[in-house]
Amino acid sequence: MENEVLRAIRERRSIPRFRPARVPGDALEAILEAGRWAPSYANLQPWEFIVVRGEDLKKALSEIAGKVTIYRRGIENADVVIVVAVDPEIDPLHYREDAAVATQNMALAAHSLGLGTYWIGVPEGGPSSAEALTKELLGIPDEFSVVAILPLGYPDPDYRPHKERRPLAEMVHHERFGSRGGG
Ligand SMILES: Cc1cc2nc3c(=O)[nH]c(=O)nc-3n(C[C@H](O)[C@H](O)[C@H](O)COP(=O)(O)O)c2cc1C
User: Fold this and answer.
1) How confident is the model at residue 183, as a pLDDT?
2) Which domains does the chain have, with CATH numbers?
3) Structure pTM?
4) Burial of 138 by CB count in 10 Å (0-12 exposed, 13-18 middle, 19+ buried)?
5) Given ligand 1 and candidates 61, 64, 120, 149, which is best to mutate, with the most ligand atoms within 8 Å of its CB?
6) What separation in Å is there between the alpha carbon of 119 and the centre of ligand 1?
7) How far is 13 from 76, CA to CA, in rounded Å?
Protein backbone atom coordinates (compact mmCIF):
# COMPACT_ATOMS: atom_id res chain seq x y z
CA MET A 1 0.00 0.00 0.00
CA GLU A 2 1.07 3.56 -0.55
CA ASN A 3 0.00 7.03 0.50
CA GLU A 4 1.64 10.32 1.47
CA VAL A 5 2.16 9.38 5.11
CA LEU A 6 3.67 5.99 4.31
CA ARG A 7 5.93 7.55 1.69
CA ALA A 8 7.12 10.25 4.09
CA ILE A 9 7.88 7.64 6.76
CA ARG A 10 9.85 5.55 4.31
CA GLU A 11 11.69 8.32 2.52
CA ARG A 12 12.69 10.52 5.46
CA ARG A 13 16.45 10.30 6.03
CA SER A 14 18.74 11.93 8.56
CA ILE A 15 20.24 15.01 6.92
CA PRO A 16 23.34 16.44 8.59
CA ARG A 17 24.25 18.86 5.78
CA PHE A 18 22.27 21.90 4.78
CA ARG A 19 22.41 24.58 2.12
CA PRO A 20 22.30 28.18 3.32
CA ALA A 21 18.61 29.04 3.02
CA ARG A 22 16.14 30.40 5.50
CA VAL A 23 13.40 28.17 6.85
CA PRO A 24 10.17 30.16 6.37
CA GLY A 25 8.21 30.98 9.49
CA ASP A 26 5.10 29.10 8.34
CA ALA A 27 7.14 25.93 7.71
CA LEU A 28 8.72 26.19 11.16
CA GLU A 29 5.32 26.67 12.71
CA ALA A 30 3.91 23.64 10.85
CA ILE A 31 6.80 21.53 12.15
CA LEU A 32 6.30 22.68 15.74
CA GLU A 33 2.57 22.06 15.32
CA ALA A 34 3.35 18.47 14.29
CA GLY A 35 5.27 18.11 17.56
CA ARG A 36 2.34 19.53 19.50
CA TRP A 37 0.02 16.88 18.08
CA ALA A 38 2.21 13.96 19.12
CA PRO A 39 0.73 11.42 21.49
CA SER A 40 1.95 11.36 25.07
CA TYR A 41 1.19 9.26 28.12
CA ALA A 42 -2.25 10.33 29.46
CA ASN A 43 -1.99 13.30 27.06
CA LEU A 44 0.31 14.98 29.60
CA GLN A 45 2.32 16.80 26.88
CA PRO A 46 5.36 17.27 29.12
CA TRP A 47 7.60 18.69 26.37
CA GLU A 48 8.99 22.13 25.60
CA PHE A 49 10.46 23.03 22.20
CA ILE A 50 13.28 25.58 22.27
CA VAL A 51 13.76 27.19 18.85
CA VAL A 52 17.33 28.41 18.37
CA ARG A 53 18.22 30.70 15.46
CA GLY A 54 21.04 32.82 16.93
CA GLU A 55 24.42 32.10 15.38
CA ASP A 56 26.29 32.19 18.70
CA LEU A 57 23.88 29.80 20.36
CA LYS A 58 23.97 27.42 17.38
CA LYS A 59 27.77 27.46 17.48
CA ALA A 60 27.74 26.69 21.20
CA LEU A 61 25.18 23.92 20.67
CA SER A 62 27.38 22.50 17.96
CA GLU A 63 30.31 22.33 20.41
CA ILE A 64 28.12 20.54 22.93
CA ALA A 65 26.76 18.14 20.32
CA GLY A 66 30.34 17.19 19.51
CA LYS A 67 30.19 15.16 22.71
CA VAL A 68 27.45 12.91 21.33
CA THR A 69 27.70 13.00 17.55
CA ILE A 70 30.33 13.12 14.83
CA TYR A 71 28.10 15.33 12.65
CA ARG A 72 28.18 18.37 14.89
CA ARG A 73 28.97 20.79 12.08
CA GLY A 74 25.47 20.21 10.76
CA ILE A 75 24.18 22.36 13.56
CA GLU A 76 26.11 25.45 12.63
CA ASN A 77 24.86 25.19 9.05
CA ALA A 78 21.27 24.54 10.00
CA ASP A 79 19.07 27.62 9.81
CA VAL A 80 17.15 26.60 12.91
CA VAL A 81 17.77 24.15 15.72
CA ILE A 82 14.91 22.77 17.79
CA VAL A 83 15.89 21.46 21.22
CA VAL A 84 13.36 19.07 22.73
CA ALA A 85 13.21 19.18 26.52
CA VAL A 86 10.78 17.39 28.76
CA ASP A 87 9.64 17.70 32.37
CA PRO A 88 9.87 14.35 34.20
CA GLU A 89 7.79 15.81 37.03
CA ILE A 90 4.81 16.02 34.66
CA ASP A 91 5.18 12.48 33.32
CA PRO A 92 7.56 10.47 35.53
CA LEU A 93 6.70 7.20 33.77
CA HIS A 94 7.18 7.96 30.09
CA TYR A 95 8.80 11.35 29.66
CA ARG A 96 11.50 10.21 27.25
CA GLU A 97 9.07 8.33 25.02
CA ASP A 98 6.80 11.39 24.98
CA ALA A 99 9.67 13.56 23.82
CA ALA A 100 10.74 10.94 21.26
CA VAL A 101 7.40 10.78 19.49
CA ALA A 102 7.18 14.58 19.35
CA THR A 103 10.68 14.65 17.88
CA GLN A 104 9.83 12.09 15.22
CA ASN A 105 6.59 13.92 14.35
CA MET A 106 8.67 17.06 13.75
CA ALA A 107 11.25 15.17 11.68
CA LEU A 108 8.53 13.72 9.48
CA ALA A 109 6.77 17.06 9.12
CA ALA A 110 10.07 18.67 8.10
CA HIS A 111 10.65 15.99 5.48
CA SER A 112 7.12 16.42 4.12
CA LEU A 113 7.90 20.12 3.57
CA GLY A 114 11.15 19.47 1.70
CA LEU A 115 13.29 20.24 4.75
CA GLY A 116 15.85 18.01 6.38
CA THR A 117 16.62 17.21 9.99
CA TYR A 118 18.68 14.77 11.89
CA TRP A 119 18.14 13.65 15.40
CA ILE A 120 21.01 14.22 17.80
CA GLY A 121 20.19 12.06 20.78
CA VAL A 122 21.05 13.59 24.14
CA PRO A 123 21.52 10.91 26.81
CA GLU A 124 20.57 11.71 30.38
CA GLY A 125 23.81 12.66 32.05
CA GLY A 126 25.74 14.13 34.94
CA PRO A 127 27.22 17.58 35.56
CA SER A 128 29.47 17.91 32.48
CA SER A 129 27.27 15.95 30.11
CA ALA A 130 25.88 17.28 26.83
CA GLU A 131 22.52 17.39 28.56
CA ALA A 132 23.75 19.54 31.45
CA LEU A 133 25.64 21.88 29.12
CA THR A 134 22.58 22.29 26.87
CA LYS A 135 20.43 23.14 29.88
CA GLU A 136 22.95 25.69 31.09
CA LEU A 137 23.33 27.27 27.64
CA LEU A 138 19.61 27.66 27.00
CA GLY A 139 18.41 28.28 30.56
CA ILE A 140 16.41 25.06 30.71
CA PRO A 141 15.44 24.31 34.34
CA ASP A 142 17.53 21.68 36.13
CA GLU A 143 14.68 19.24 36.66
CA PHE A 144 14.10 18.94 32.91
CA SER A 145 15.57 16.29 30.67
CA VAL A 146 16.91 17.20 27.22
CA VAL A 147 16.11 14.42 24.78
CA ALA A 148 16.98 15.64 21.31
CA ILE A 149 18.69 18.38 19.35
CA LEU A 150 17.08 18.70 15.94
CA PRO A 151 18.94 20.81 13.36
CA LEU A 152 16.61 21.94 10.59
CA GLY A 153 17.27 23.30 7.14
CA TYR A 154 17.12 22.69 3.41
CA PRO A 155 19.15 19.59 2.53
CA ASP A 156 22.50 20.06 0.79
CA PRO A 157 21.73 18.61 -2.66
CA ASP A 158 25.18 16.97 -2.77
CA TYR A 159 24.51 14.94 0.36
CA ARG A 160 23.45 11.41 -0.51
CA PRO A 161 21.91 9.63 2.43
CA HIS A 162 21.79 5.89 2.19
CA LYS A 163 20.24 3.67 4.80
CA GLU A 164 18.95 0.16 4.81
CA ARG A 165 16.71 -1.55 7.30
CA ARG A 166 16.64 -5.12 8.57
CA PRO A 167 14.04 -7.10 6.62
CA LEU A 168 10.58 -7.15 8.15
CA ALA A 169 10.59 -10.94 8.23
CA GLU A 170 13.58 -10.75 10.56
CA MET A 171 11.91 -8.45 13.10
CA VAL A 172 8.32 -9.63 13.13
CA HIS A 173 7.30 -12.53 15.34
CA HIS A 174 3.93 -14.19 15.12
CA GLU A 175 2.18 -15.06 18.36
CA ARG A 176 5.40 -15.86 20.21
CA PHE A 177 8.97 -14.56 20.06
CA GLY A 178 11.01 -16.58 17.60
CA SER A 179 8.10 -17.72 15.48
CA ARG A 180 8.63 -16.46 11.90
CA GLY A 181 5.98 -18.56 10.23
CA GLY A 182 3.32 -15.90 9.62
CA GLY A 183 -0.42 -16.33 9.84
C1 LIG B 1 17.43 8.23 19.67
C2 LIG B 1 18.25 8.61 18.47
C3 LIG B 1 19.47 9.21 18.65
C4 LIG B 1 20.25 9.58 17.56
N5 LIG B 1 21.43 10.22 17.78
C6 LIG B 1 22.19 10.59 16.72
C7 LIG B 1 23.41 11.28 16.92
O8 LIG B 1 23.80 11.60 18.06
N9 LIG B 1 24.13 11.63 15.84
C10 LIG B 1 23.72 11.34 14.58
O11 LIG B 1 24.42 11.68 13.63
N12 LIG B 1 22.56 10.69 14.34
C13 LIG B 1 21.79 10.32 15.39
N14 LIG B 1 20.59 9.69 15.17
C15 LIG B 1 20.15 9.42 13.79
C16 LIG B 1 20.42 7.96 13.41
O17 LIG B 1 21.80 7.72 13.25
C18 LIG B 1 19.66 7.64 12.12
O19 LIG B 1 18.28 7.84 12.35
C20 LIG B 1 19.90 6.19 11.67
O21 LIG B 1 21.23 6.01 11.28
C22 LIG B 1 18.99 5.81 10.49
O23 LIG B 1 19.20 6.70 9.42
P24 LIG B 1 18.01 7.52 8.77
O25 LIG B 1 17.44 8.42 9.84
O26 LIG B 1 18.65 8.33 7.66
O27 LIG B 1 17.02 6.55 8.25
C28 LIG B 1 19.79 9.31 16.24
C29 LIG B 1 18.54 8.72 16.07
C30 LIG B 1 17.76 8.39 17.16
C31 LIG B 1 16.39 7.79 16.95
Assistant:
1) 47
2) 4-156 (3.40.109.10)
3) 0.95
4) middle
5) 120
6) 5
7) 19
